[in-house]
């Protein structure tokens, strides 16, 4: 029965410690209560011709590393416009495409492209203004979205974490790079392309890295034998590793 006198001070200690933890969690403004407001990285995914943003959202479920716990994802949808290569049919499209298959020398809709780039830049600006480090911003895209990714990253005035192009092409002439800043040239590019692609020919993808190297940018190119115009899990797992090596810690 001699241990009963110890209960009272022990109970006081437990209650005091409990209220301290409660105060920190509820009232301390520096404690992270909402991971959405403290996202340390941002991944913007741009879909291909005729697709939609929501249809691509399952992609983020493959990024299981704990380093993506505070990543904000965005999957916007392109506006519906007439597309020349589909006989003027109206469909979701970031800019006009004149012919399919796309080759390294296909005609380019630079005016439509630059309009789309402006909209992508507005999305990036919004996230950076909300507090995300530009070095933790990654723009990724497939096919037409990959082409838009390339243009958006090359023409963004700041150095970003990276741009990832899947089955894309260079959608502009070299003269457009007169607008490029020295900071933009520091943004790394990951380029993945299927060797059996009959929609955006492999030669169109192969033309990308030499083009980028000529303007002083680094590009990691990965060819996938047997892969047609699609994206597979191997490419996405490689993207996950590529982004992880470039993530910056919170400031």
UniProtKB/TrEMBL annotation:
The chain crosses the membrane at residues 6-27. One of its GO terms (molecular function) is palmitoyl-(protein) hydrolase activity. The keyword Transmembrane applies. Residues 36-245 form the Phospholipase/carboxylesterase/thioesterase domain. Keywords: Fatty acid metabolism, Hydrolase, Lipid metabolism, Membrane, Transmembrane, Transmembrane helix. One of its GO terms (cellular component) is cytoplasm. It comes from the Eukaryota. GO terms for biological process: fatty acid metabolic process. PANTHER family: LYSOPHOSPHOLIPASE-LIKE PROTEIN 1, LYSOPHOSPHOLIPASE-RELATED. Belongs to the AB hydrolase superfamily. AB hydrolase 2 family. This is Phospholipase/carboxylesterase/thioesterase domain-containing protein. It comes from Anisodus tanguticus.
